[in-house]
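Supplementary material to the annual report.
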Amino acid sequence: MKNLKRKLENISIENFLKGLILYSVLVFLIIFLVFPLGTLFVRAFQRPDGSPAGFEQFARYFTNPAMLQSVGNTFFVAIVSTLVSVGLAFLFSYSLSRKNIRFKNFFRYIGMVPIFAPTMLLGIALIYLFGNKGILTAAGLGIPLYGKVGIIIAESIYCFPVATTILMVAFSGADNRLYEAADSMGTSAWRKMITITIPNVKYGLISALFVSFTYSFTDFGAPSVVGGNYNVLATDVYKQVVGQQNFNMGAVVGIVLLFPAVLSFAVDRITSSKQNASISSKAVPYVIKPHKTSDRLAAGFCWLITAAMLLFFGVALFASLIKLWPYNLTLTLKNYDLTRVAAGAGTAAFRNSVLIALAAAAMGTVACFLTAYMTERIQKFPKTRKLTYFLGITPLAIPGTVVGLSYILFFNASWFGIPFTSYALQSPFYALYGTIWIVIFADIIHFFSVPFTTAVTSLKRLDKEFETVSESMGVPFYHTLGRVIIPLCLPAIIEMFVYYFVNALVTVSAVVFIYSARVPLAAVAIVNLEGAGDTAPAAAMCMLLLFINLGVRLIYEAIRRHQEKKGQRP
Amino acid sequence: MKKLIVTACMLAMVMSTLTGCVKKTQESPSEPAAGTVQGDESAAQGEASTTQLPANETQSAAVNEKELNIYTALEDEQVTDYLTEFKEQNPDVTIHITRDSTGIITSKLLAEKDNPIADVVWGLSATSLLVLKQNDMLEGYAPEGVDRILPEFKDAAEVPDWVGIDAWETAWLVNKEVLKSKGIDTVPASYEDLLDPKYEGLIAMPNPASSGTGLLTVNGILQLMGEEKGWEYLDALDKNVAVYTHSGSQPAKEAASGEYGIGISFGYRCINSASEVGPEIAEAVFPSEGSGWDVEANALIKKADQKEISKTFLDWAISDNIMQKYAENYPIVAIGVGSGVPEGYAQNPVDQLIKPMDFENLAKNRETTLDEWTLRYDAKSAQKE
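Predicted assembly:
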């Protein structure tokens, strides 16, 4: 007892605070990530009445021809979309980083546009382009849109920005000495590509492939618009859960959805840990040498991508502005009248979506940064830190549909049964159900990993000495954090905030399961409008979200420029 | 050791929130439901650690007359329009509308059986309400003026479990321009006509699992032709169907915009969408054999704490003003059709309906019918690719 008392006295306030913060973020991740996912697993092995089912539901799932067909369909569209989007992104980012072309910034921004809009917008644009009455169909460029072709095109565009971002980073780390050596030996351009460039970006390429695969494997928005009768897993979950309220079967599909994501996640971890060592500190940055033919080809390719993007979003804008496609092409703003949609709750839905995006961005940025700070800059509690880090990167592998599904399963139960016993616990989290908070938390968890990694990277760059020096001078860690670390990481923090906001505003897959009549959401209203055949108002609502996101991004760019200028001053 | 103490502190904090470890009672934990409302928002936004009482106790604790949860399958734009009057009359009541296609509202209500969130159901198909009745989820209530409602539009009991407001029926929208571009200059006038191979891949039809219109169409066909012949017909029709849609209005809207040649939908939607694009392009067709139909009806949900406002709402929902509003959209309302043929209809719409539709029986068979349909066409349409 005396011993314990002395130990307690020995704990400095500072260490107590550190422990408190670290365990708070850990508990946060456990409650909002581990518990819901755990519930999903438990429910997949239960009958609807709660009795244990073993693999019975999985057996039912895998013997149902329609369901099996969906698994095949989903793999097919995901693989093809991945190859197409990564192929295009490879050429695009290669052109931007290794070729001598103009307007590079412009091209880069244009290539990013698809992430600012809900994926339904891509589907809608496709209908106006390639549908039975589509603009390009009329020009004789018809394609069998509904089904796999439509899904593949939409997913390819959807994955393009993220693949480009990853590959741009990969291309930026090159060692020019290798190229110089190759040139002096008279190596052909093609051979340099095969033996230097591609091995160099190998890990970036693998990571881009897997991220694109996960995205297109789990996306709900595009297949719901242009899928026709071509069933994929994401729409199956929706049919099971929302259509038939069969939560346990939904949980089974959720777990099937999780497999490739977990695989890609594992590959991603392995490759990213290797990548860190691939470029030596003596490397010389790549020098772009002009080469007329290939430069022209690269520029041409970039213009082609730009034209395609502008065509897509131009058509979507057009779709939202005309009265009645294709018979009455009068321009109108009627479709933007939010009071007419979602049973009169359109304005509220829109406001809620913006509020939720703001709240998720603010809280998520704080949570991510604290988690990153605790795992990177604190020497104590090594095992807990490792666990927290692992939980922090896990959401990357979890599709939005699975986040949403596990959230309803966990938060809507007023009691949890403890597996293998006849005991049940009252759930204190039941109160969150049906409120705006559950959506905010779902968004925070769903998009946790990328901002978390951003924070970790920017904290890693800071000198370890900051903490050591302040400790030796008796300055508490929170002063160092507030006065040194946070100001130095400010660009990363703003970037995290913007990432959260942009993604939370347009996400459909996670929120489609957990919204409630009390908290209508814009993204869900779009799904419902589209489901009722009201394509033009759906397009209008997508465009509004796109405009807000572009606005936020522009503000971000302005701030960044301002800061860079400030930084350049002596 | 320090580490351990901190861990213990944190654990204690977590455990204190997980209060009340009790033996599970007989009743199973209530089934969760997607996109529904639970608890009072202001309370819910408070501390997450607030311990919740078991659901039935919280319910009996306080009846909130200021909030009304309505589940409805009426059309989006109709809901906004209809509700204006009720909101004027009851300005201090907050209304939460949960609107979706018939099948989804039905499964949501069934999923929430043990812990219902809806106070009233407004404009849901009689077939679905009968399913709820068979599950003992409805509370009888005779709203003011229920005597005016024709007997085939309400529950037979003295205090009816459900009271109809209007009826809707199978129709299709034909886009003549699209058909012409495929070299077809006929307009299919009957179910039989739809089987013509020239319409292959041109028909959109609602999925009966999610859409009430889809279900009443399938039910109408089964009623008209008998079980065996009916399914044979649907097998043949499936060959011509390009897509089964989520909602009942989607096929008409998409046929009107030229995505499909023929959209199987319901009367109101077909006439409306056809008039939007004009008669030279689109035409609303009522099948010559007769239309499958269903009644849109209201009901009070059985729960421990009945609200007075729910009854006020049900009274209002069949009052004269609102009946007139219903009639603007659906010519067959539950107090009878006015004289004369409404605009867009070729004959008195009541004569168009297949009689009789045995709703009680259709409700009993609803699940079997849907399972059969899903087995035959959901799997098949996926394999076609």
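Chain B touches chain A through 92 residues (CB under 8 Å).
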